[in-house]
UniProtKB/TrEMBL annotation:
The keyword Hydrolase applies. The keyword Hydrolase applies. Gene3D superfamilies: Hypothetical protein af1432 (1.10.3210.10). Keywords: Hydrolase. Residues 17-152 form the HD/PDEase domain. It comes from Barnesiella viscericola DSM 18177. This is Phosphohydrolase. GO terms for molecular function: hydrolase activity. InterPro entries: Diverse_Catalytic_Enzymes (IPR051094), HD/PDEase_dom (IPR003607), HD_domain (IPR006674), HDIG_dom (IPR006675). SUPFAM superfamilies: HD-domain/PDEase-like.
């Protein structure tokens, strides 16, 4: 896979949106690879980890989030599902799963129904080790402050705002990789 070519298919190089999403994705990929290399016993697919981390937010341009230069018409919460659709259409079903399962610490069908989210009524939680790793690494960076890694305590506080379940899922991923 040529990650740059896939990215350039959907984002115009040189634009603020391109810079925002590419920079964020690069930091997530670097963090994910750093953690993967610290755990050779897990036998993670490093090429896939890199590709998936670089493309996990590929669908964000279709959402409406002006503060990060996204001028689409869909709610931001849908960016994972939208990215998954793009990845499946491009022939990357495994990457699609990372896209749709990285939001928060994953979303259960109960979360989706309880919060009335505009998402399919099915579990969207990371399953494989690679999916969990990209999901975890993503929590340490935001697109609004892309150059600053959040400290672990701040990430935990942020995740805990959503639910105890969300924090539990985060802590399980952290136990695997941190």
């Amino acid at each position: 896979m040529d990650v740059q070519a896939v990215f350039n298919k959907y984002y115009q190089p040189g634009t603020p949106l391109y810079q925002s999403v590419w920079s964020h994705s690069r930091l997530v990929a670097e963090k994910a690879l750093q953690l993967a290399k610290a755990h050779p016993e897990l036998n993670l697919d490093l090429d896939f980890v890199y590709e998936a981390a670089m493309l996990h937010d590929i669908g964000v341009f279709l959402t409406h989030a002006p503060s990060i230069y996204c001028m689409g018409d869909k709610p931001y919460i849908c960016h994972g599902i939208l990215g998954a659709e793009l990845m499946r259409a491009d022939g990357y079903p495994r990457h699609a799963l990372v896209c749709e399962r990285h939001t928060g610490t994953g979303l259960t069908v109960d979360d989706i129904i309880a919060q009335n989210l505009p998402l399919p009524h099915r579990d969207l939680c990371p399953v494989t080790l690679e999916e969990k790793l990209v999901c975890l690494a993503d929590k340490f960076y935001s697109k609004s402050n892309p150059d600053r890694e959040k400290p672990l305590d701040k990430v935990r506080q942020s995740v805990a705002r959503y639910s105890e379940d969300s924090l539990r899922r985060f802590d399980e991923m952290a136990k695997l990789f941190l």
